[in-house]
Design brief:
- This protein is mainly α.
- It contains eleven helices and two strands; from the N terminus they run ααααββααααααα.
- It has a two-stranded antiparallel ribbon.
- The longest helix has 29 residues.
- It is globular, with a radius of gyration of 18 Å.
- The chain starts with 7 loop residues before the first helix and ends with a helix.
């Protein structure tokens, strides 16, 4: 689905989504990319939506680092972040490969044509999987200890590069290592930024190797900048008001939206 260029409604949708989700996820460490990627997918091709989300996500993490980065646990950043960066390159390269595969099927629904492609199907399945982490009590409470940091870095980095879904797994691993809330937030932001830089570089290299044009055109940057600025405001609002919202509420809202968007993607509706 592609919206009309310059439609004010587009900016409202992206801005509200980025503002709301960025505020809610300041302390959870995940959610912005999870929700914003499918929102961008309403207006851009899916591989462009992932790249655009990486730009907003990376800029937002820079801002969070400026606010809370001094509390980051440097040892955790190295033990978790370095494997995550390496895996992010692999995930981003896999996205570049899958995005060029042809369509699987198409059908008519409500006067429009829905197209199912490999990348939409894979993204939909991944999003349903991550929705389970938010909605199912057994998975919501899943935690890991320090001996699993390498595995956690590899998994979160790969999925961060492939689909932008890195935060939920990263938070599950980091939440059980005995650090303060401030250190958790700062470490999350710093590692997230490292992964974002790795995948943005890989996306750019993949498009150049394919001799494709810049995946993000000049007409798309205003929408991306809107999301970036709204995410900045969300961080400031979240820092002030987040204590009034429970983690369970954040997880339920995120999971419910993921299910709806995942089904729409997997079936080719968006």
């Amino acid at each position: 689905m592609q919206a009309a260029e310059g439609d004010p409604v587009d900016f409202v949708i992206v801005g509200v989504a980025a503002l709301f989700v960025s505020g809610l996820t300041l302390f959870s460490g995940f959610g912005l990319g999870t929700i914003l990627m499918p929102v961008f997918a309403l207006f851009f091709p899916l591989e462009v939506a992932v790249a655009a989300t990486a730009v907003v996500h990376g800029a937002n993490n820079v801002f969070k680092i400026a606010v809370v980065g001094k509390h980051a646990d440097r040892a955790l950043v190295v033990r978790f972040g370095v494997p995550a960066i390496l895996a992010a390159f692999a995930g981003a390269a896999a996205l570049g490969y899958v995005s060029h595969l042809g369509e699987i099927a198409r059908y008519a629904i409500g006067g429009r044509t829905a197209v199912i492609t490999p990348i939409k199907l894979v993204m939909g399945v991944l999003m349903l999987g991550f929705a389970c982490f938010e909605l199912l009590p057994q998975l919501r409470a899943l935690k890991f200890d320090r001996r699993h940091l390498l595995l956690g870095g590899l998994l979160s980095g790969f999925f961060g590069g492939f689909s932008g879904h890195q935060g939920a797994l990263r938070s599950a691993f980091l939440a059980k290592v005995g650090i303060s809330t401030e250190a958790f937030v700062g470490t999350n932001a710093l590692i997230g930024f490292m992964v974002d830089m790795a995948r943005i570089a890989t996306y750019a290299a993949t498009f150049l190797m394919a001799r494709a044009a810049n995946p993000i055109g000049p007409e798309e940057w205003p929408l991306i900048l809107t999301g970036t600025l709204a995410a900045f405001l969300g961080v400031m609002a979240g820092k002030r008001f987040l204590h009034k919202i429970t983690m369970a509420t954040i997880q339920t809202l995120t999971g419910g939206l993921l299910v709806v968007i995942a089904l729409a993607l997997a079936t080719g509706v968006i």
